[in-house]
Each structure stands twice: as C-alpha cells, then as structure tokens.
C-alpha cells in the first residue's frame, strides 16, 4: 500500500504547481500585450497612409475643379478631364502599390517573441 505523503511535501508540490501556473499565465498575458501593441502600431501606420491617400485624392479633385473653372470652352474641358483621368489612374496605381508594400512590410515584420 502507498504511504501517504507528509503534509509538508504535499504543500510544497502544490505551491510549486500553483507558481508554475501563475508564471505561465503572466507569460501569456505579456505575449498578448506585445501582440496587441504590435497590432496597434501596424493599424496606426495603415490609418496614417490611408489618410494621406484620401488627402491626395481630395487635393486632386480640388485641382480639377479649379482647372474646370478656368476652362475657356468645351475643348478645354475635354483636355482637362483626360489629364485628370490619367493622373488619377496613375495615382491609383501608386496608392495600390504603396498599400501592397505596406501589407508586405506587416507580413514580413518580426512578430513579438513567443507568439
């Protein structure tokens, strides 16, 4: 028959197990905090880029309105519109490239340790 453990040994084992559990919980909380911080920084960077892009698009629209206001006739409007469409298409391509590069940067960025 198994001899029961002395109370002191049982208490020591229980205390050790509880400490290990607490340590694992603290470690998991730190990893979650690092992950949250990294994600927040990435979202800030993305939001900043999107605001910059929206600002550039709004500026282009105001430039178009200014050019249209200065048009002398219908032929000027056609030239203004075709130039605007070309510039916007180029801007859209550049913005899509920038967003793709930013996505790659986020994908390639080192995640916090222990994730």
Can you characterise this structure?
The mean pLDDT is about 85. The protein is built from two helices and no strands. About 85% of the residues lie in helices and about 0% in strands. It has helices at about 5-70, 75-110. The protein is mainly α and about 120 residues long. The protein has one domain (about 5-110).
Quote the distance from N terminus to C terminus: 46 Å
Mean pLDDT figure: 86
Total count of domains: 1
Oligomer state equals: single chain
Helix content: over 70%
Number of strands: 0
Specify the number of helices.
2
Task: Assign an overall shape.
Answer: rod-shaped
Order of helices and strands: HH
Q: Sheet bearing the most strands, described?
A: none
Low-confidence stretches: none
Structure classification: mainly alpha
Please indicate the percent range of residues in DSSP E strands (runs of 2 or more): under 5%
What Rg do the Cα atoms give? 30 Å
Spell out the key features of this protein:
115 residues, mainly alpha
Give a nutshell description of this structure.
The protein is mainly alpha-helical and 115 residues long.
List the helices and strands and how they pair.
Blueprint (H helix, E strand, L loop, with lengths): L6 H63 L4 H35 L7
Helix pairs in contact: 1-2
């Amino acid at each position: 028959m198994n001899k029961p453990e002395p109370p002191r040994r049982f208490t020591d084992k229980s205390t050790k197990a509880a400490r290990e559990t607490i340590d694992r919980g603290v470690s998991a909380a730190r990893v979650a905090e690092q992950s949250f911080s990294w994600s927040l920084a990435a979202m800030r960077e993305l939001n900043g880029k999107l605001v910059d892009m929206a600002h550039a698009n709004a500026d282009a629209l105001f430039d178009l309105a200014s050019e249209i206001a200065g048009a002398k006739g219908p032929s000027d409007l056609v030239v203004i519109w075709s130039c605007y469409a070309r510039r916007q298409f180029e801007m859209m391509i550049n913005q899509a490239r920038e967003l793709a590069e930013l996505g790659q940067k986020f994908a390639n960025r080192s995640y916090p340790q222990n994730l």
